[in-house]
Each structure stands twice: as structure tokens, then as C-alpha cells.
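Batch job 17 of 40 flagged for manual review because the log was empty.
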Amino acid sequence: MKKSALLALLASLTLGVGLLAGSALAGGGASNDPVDARVSALRAGTSAPNARIAAFIQAGGTDVRSKGLAGVTHPSTGLYCLDPAADPFNVNRAIPQLSVDWSTSLGDALMAHWRSAGIGCPAGQFSVLTFDGEDGSFDLSDSVSFTFYVP
């Protein structure tokens, strides 16, 4: 067998095993990582000395820990509204950063987006959309945890 053919076969087998493992993991629990002391420790206090807002929002809308938020609502699938604690707080002038938290999310092709227009949320709140694209079509999803930060 030629070296290139052998490498292609090996790559194919590796990909297949990885996909099977990923499917087993996704179907076997409520998150990508098993619940252990490190994941449980995420519920500890927040340390974000230079942030006006910092939040870790679990899939479904639970505010695991935050600074500068009055609350989080989850009005529909994949839509989260983050209400700043500071009053007044001009959400139209802030530039937030957010990212998917892999450990407490479920799936592989996950996204979280800030919606600058704020559509779907009351005025004065940040709008975040979460998506799962595991099947190839990115649909709004409640299986995505995310972090949100406003410097």
C-alpha cells in the first residue's frame, strides 16, 4: 500500500472514531465535559476588576456568576436578554465581547452572537443569540452556555 493511501486511510479512521466519540459524549449528558470539581467550581464568585459587566450564563439562562448585571431573561429559544445593573447604562455605546463556554454547553458546532440592534429584548438590555449547527443548519438553541464581557 502506498504511503499516501495509508495516510488517507489512517486519517479517515481517526475522523470516524472522533465522530463516534463526539456523538457518544453529546448524547450521554447535559454538557460537553463531565461534571466534576472543576465544573462545579465555576459557581464560585466573580473576579473581573476591570469589567463594567462580566457574566457566565449557562445554557437555558441561569446566571452562574456575574458582575454588573441586574438580571438575565430567556424569552425564547436561543434568545437571552442581559439587563445591566448600572442605571443609566447606554447599551448602544458599549462593545461587548462574548464566547461560547465549551464545558457547560452541549454540542460541537456552537455559536453565540451579540445582537447590536437589541431586537427581541427590552430597550436598555443586551440581546444575545445562541445557535447549534451540528446538523449543518444553524438553529437557535438552548444548549449553549456563554460568557459576556463589557470592558
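Reviewer: the log was empty due to a logging misconfiguration, but the result itself is present. The chain is about 20% helix and 35% strand. Unflagging and moving on to job 18.
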